[in-house]
Amino acid sequence: GDSVTQMEGPVTLSEEAFLTINCTYTATGYPSLFWYVQYPGEGLQLLLKATKADDKGSNKGFEATYRKETTSFHLEKGSVQVSDSAVYFCALNGGSNYKLTFGKGTLLTVNP
Amino acid sequence: DSGVTQTPKHLITATGQRVTLRCSPRSGDLSVYWYQQSLDQGLQFLIQYYNGEERAKGNILERFSAQQFPDLHSELNLSSLELGDSALYFCASSVGYRSYEQYFGPGTRLTVT
Question: Which pLDDT does position A98 carry in this prediction?
Answer without folding.
Answer: 72
